[in-house]
Amino acid sequence: MSAQFRAIVSLSFVFACAAFAESPGGAGVSPVLVYLETGSNADSASLPFMRRETETLLRTAGYHVEWRDAGGTREPDTRADLVVVRLAGSCTAPVGQNAAAASPDGLQRLATTPVVDGRILPFSQVDCAALTRALVASLTDEAPARRTYLYGRAMGRLVAHELYHILGQTTEHSRSGVGKSCFSLGDLTAEVFEFEPGALARLRRLADPANAAAHGMDDGTPAAAILNGR
């Protein structure tokens, strides 16, 4: 809670926050396999835009994102970094001002990634109900196709934020861009929203397989174990 409180104090414009759920107790392009748990969202028209935004943001950092259906996985491919992303709630662009109520404290947790014994696990969740609350007022007057696009793009930015932590194995945030701790409404809907140079440099350095192995990102074992335990 203290980290969230500091974020509210230092960023008074904050509308929403992509945060961690704390648990008790180089060269070339590096592949990343994202196993997507869509739940009831398999047919959501926003998913292609989510994928495209995630791919674009990670490409600038030296990673090539490939997608897999977590529900159909039997033998996970561990030749690349492996991440599981779960979509919680209904990931559909909101319609109408009363689609969802705003958070009473003005802070909404949009995405989470667990941290256990100091290690960031390759398992993230996007809270689509919270994202809908964050975006409903700004998307109400948009045309249906535009709403769908903006909603999916915002989802992609949240996924890219969590991948920044997982691939970089860092709980730290950048001062600006996709790697910062809290997203404003403008960040979610802006035409351009990217990683800041420091975050890009860290990710590009770890895209080198030798550096990634040194930081424990070489075999994807934790995520593979999650998938195998389904």
List the helices and strands and how they pair.
Elements: H1 2-10, E1 16-17, E2 21-22, E3 30-37, H2 47-60, E4 63-69, E5 81-88, E6 111-112, E7 114-116, E8 119-120, E9 123-127, H3 128-139, H4 144-168, E10 182-183, H5 185-189, H6 197-206, H7 209-214, H8 221-228
Parallel strand pairs: 2-7, 3-4, 3-5, 5-9
Antiparallel strand pairs: 1-10, 6-9, 7-8
What does this structure look like?
With 230 residues, this protein is α/β, with parallel strands linked by helices. The protein has one domain (2-228): Collagenase (Catalytic Domain), CATH 3.40.390. Helices cover 39% and strands 18% of the residues. It is built from eight helices and ten strands. The chain has helices spanning 2-10, 47-60, 128-139, 144-168, 185-189, 197-206, 209-214, 221-228, and strands spanning 16-17, 21-22, 30-37, 63-69, 81-88, 111-112, 114-116, 119-120, 123-127, 182-183. The strands form three sheets. A five-stranded mixed sheet has the order 4-3-5-9-6, with helices on both faces. A three-stranded mixed sheet has the order 2-7-8, with no helix packed on it. A two-stranded antiparallel sheet has the order 1-10. A hairpin with a 2-residue loop joins strand 7 and strand 8 (119-120). Helix 2 (47-60) crosses helix 4 and helix 3 (128-139) crosses helix 4. The longest helix is centred in the C-terminal third of the chain and has 25 residues, at 144-168. The radius of gyration is 17 Å and the shape is globular. Residues 1-14 have low confidence and may be disordered.
